[in-house]
Amino acid sequence: MCNIKQVLVVVVMSFASVAYGDQGTATYYTAPYVPSSCDGYKNDGVMIAAASDTIWDNKAACGRTYKVKCTGATNKGVPNPCTGQSVVVRVVDYCPPGCRGTIDLSQEAFAVIANTDAGKIKIQFDQ
Fold this sequence. Notes:
Residues 1-21 form the signal peptide. InterPro entries: EGC1/2 (IPR044206), Expansin/allergen_DPBB_dom (IPR007112), RlpA-like_DPBB (IPR009009), RlpA-like_sf (IPR036908). Keywords: Signal. This is Expansin-like EG45 domain-containing protein. It is built from three helices and six strands. The protein has helices spanning 4-19, 53-56, 107-113, and strands at 22-29, 48-51, 65-73, 86-94, 103-106, 121-126. The chain has a six-stranded mixed beta barrel with strand order 1-5-2-4-3-6. The model is unreliable at 4-18 (pLDDT under 50).
């Protein structure tokens, strides 16, 4: 039998996993997606991203996957850009200094989670 402390721990851990995630911003870039910093001329498909210095980690981010979800607008042009969906992307490129977002999604990946007219959105992302 479970005691009340064990049940409480399970409930708290469940809530923690729902609330977990780093906050940041996302922008998007358009094709062609090759060459990339990680894979050169290899075609990595379109559910890809470029990492800013925040997550690049001296190229260690190459190949990492992130689940990204739009959490809101960063500008008044598109006040409700989010679709309510999330997308999983693989880091294949580097977004150099001056990058406008934490993660620069392919246009196709951005379109899954937000209206591309927004250009830049607030996000939650998990590796």
